[in-house]
C-alpha cells in the first residue's frame, strides 16, 4: 500500500491527511484528539459543552466550558508529540466568539466550524496564527462564504471540509436528502466545490479540501483523493478506540448497532441528524420531552417549545446511558465491530 501524501495548511504540516471529526458532547476531547495528532493527523476537540463533568457546570455553564476547553487543548497538545490540535465549534453555539478566543489563547492550531455559516471567523482570527475551515455541504454555501471573505477581508479559509449526506451528527441536508442521496450522486457536488476552491489558488495559494461523511477505509480515502480532495475527515471510526473519550457503554452501542438501526432525527439545532435508533430516538418521533433546565447552548432555541434539550440528550449519551439519550453516529456505524486503538487505525489506513 502506498502511503498517503502529507498536506500543508500554511505553516502546518499534516503528515497523514486525516482529520478526526469533532464529536460532542464529550466524545472527542483531549485523549482522542491527542492520540490522533500523535499519529500525524489532525486531532479535534469538540467545543460542545466540554465542561459538562465539572461541578460548576450547572451553575455557570459558560465559565465551566471555557475552563474545560482550555484544559483539553493543553492536555491534547501535551500528548500529541508535536502534532496538530483543532477544535470544532458549532456556529449556532451561544457565545461563539468567546469559544474562538479561548482556542486562540489556549494554543489550538486550527478551528473547524459548521452547523451554520461562520461568516465572522476571519475577523475573529485576525492577527493570529490559527488556521480555520468551514464545514460545507453545497457549492452555494462555499460560494457565499468565499465571495464575502474575499471581498471583505481579502482572504478565504485556510482549508475546507465538505460534509456529505452519510455523515454523523448534524447534517446540512434535508431529511430526504440525508436518507436517499447516494455518495455517487453527491460526488458531482464534491467535484464542483473542489474546482471552485481551486479557482482561488492563484490569489491565495493552495487551499486543501477534505471530505467527510461515510469515510471508513482506505478505498474511501483513495476515492475522494481521486476527486481532487487532499484528504478526509473521519469520526465514527474513531469512537471504537481505547482513546475515545466517551463512556465504554457508548462505544458498545456502536459495536452492537446494525445497519437498520441508523436513522435520521430532528434536532433542536434546526438541522436533521443521524443517530442510532434507541428508545429516546423512537419516543421523540411522536412526543416532546420537556426541558427541565436550559444550558444556553445554542442560539435561537426556546426551552419552552423545543422538542427536547439536545445538551441533556448528548450528555446522557457520553455518560453511557444507551437508551435515554441521543446517540449520534455516521452511516457506517454498523461496521464498527470491536475496540481498537488510534494507532491501529492509522496503520491500517496508511500502510
From TrEMBL:
Q: Which Pfam families match?
A: NMO (PF03060)
- Give the matching PANTHER family: 2-NITROPROPANE DIOXYGENASE (PTHR32332:SF18)
Q: Which InterPro entries match?
A: Aldolase_TIM, NMO
UniProt keyword terms in alphabetical order: Flavoprotein, FMN, Monooxygenase, Oxidoreductase
Q: Which GO terms describe its molecular function?
A: nitronate monooxygenase activity
Name of the molecule in the record: Probable nitronate monooxygenase
This chain's function reads: Nitronate monooxygenase that uses molecular oxygen to catalyze the oxidative denitrification of alkyl nitronates. Acts on propionate 3-nitronate (P3N), the presumed physiological substrate. Probably functions in the detoxification of P3N, a metabolic poison produced by plants and fungi as a defense mechanism.
Amino acid at each position: 500500500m502506498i502511503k498517503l501524501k502529507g498536506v500543508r495548511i500554511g505553516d502546518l504540516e499534516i503528515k497523514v491527511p486525516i482529520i478526526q471529526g469533532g464529536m460532542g458532547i464529550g466524545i472527542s476531547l483531549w485523549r482522542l484528539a491527542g492520540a490522533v495528532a500523535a499519529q500525524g493527523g489532525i486531532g479535534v476537540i469538540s467545543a460542545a459543552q466540554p465542561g459538562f463533568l465539572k461541578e460548576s457546570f450547572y451553575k455557570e455553564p459558560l465559565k465551566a466550558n471555557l475552563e474545560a476547553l482550555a484544559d483539553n487543548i493543553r492536555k491534547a497538545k501535551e500528548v500529541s508529540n508535536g502534532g496538530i490540535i483543532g477544535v470544532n465549534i458549532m456556529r449556532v453555539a451561544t457565545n461563539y466568539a468567546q469559544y474562538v478566543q479561548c482556542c486562540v489563547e489556549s494554543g489550538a492550531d486550527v478551528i473547524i466550524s459548521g452547523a451554520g455559516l461562520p461568516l465572522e471567523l476571519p475577523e475573529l482570527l485576525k492577527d493570529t496564527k490559527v488556521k480555520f475551515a468551514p464545514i460545507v455541504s453545497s457549492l452555494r454555501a462555499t460560494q457565499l462564504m468565499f465571495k464575502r471573505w474575499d471581498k471583505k477581508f481579502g482572504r478565504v479559509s485556510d482549508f475546507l471540509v465538505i460534509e456529505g449526506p452519510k455523515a454523523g451528527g448534524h447534517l446540512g441536508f434535508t431529511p430526504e436528502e440525508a436518507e436517499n442521496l447516494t455518495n455517487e450522486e453527491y460526488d458531482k457536488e464534491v467535484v464542483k466545490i473542489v474546482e471552485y476552491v481551486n479557482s482561488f489558488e492563484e490569489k491565495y495559494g493552495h487551499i486543501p479540501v477534505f471530505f467527510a461523511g461515510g469515510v471508513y477505509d482506505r478505498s474511501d480515502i483513495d476515492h475522494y483523493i481521486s476527486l481532487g480532495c487532499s484528504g478526509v475527515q473521519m469520526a465514527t471510526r474513531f469512537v471504537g478506540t481505547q482513546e475515545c473519550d466517551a463512556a465504554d457503554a457508548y462505544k458498545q452501542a456502536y459495536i452492537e448497532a446494525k445497519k437498520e438501526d441508523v436513522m435520521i432525527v430532528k434536532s433542536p439545532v434546526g438541522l436533521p441528524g443521524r443517530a442510532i435508533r434507541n428508545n429516546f430516538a423512537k419516543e421523540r418521533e411522536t412526543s416532546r420531552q420537556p426541558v427541565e433546565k436550559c444550558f444556553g447552548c445554542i442560539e435561537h432555541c426556546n426551552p419552552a417549545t423545543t422538542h427536547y434539550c439536545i445538551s441533556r440528550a448528548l450528555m446522557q449519551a457520553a455518560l453511557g446511558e444507551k437508551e435515554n439519550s441521543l446517540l449520534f453516529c455516521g452511516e457506517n456505524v454498523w461496521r464498527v465491530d470491536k475496540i481498537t486503538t488510534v494507532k491501529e487505525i492509522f496503520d491500517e489506513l496508511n500502510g
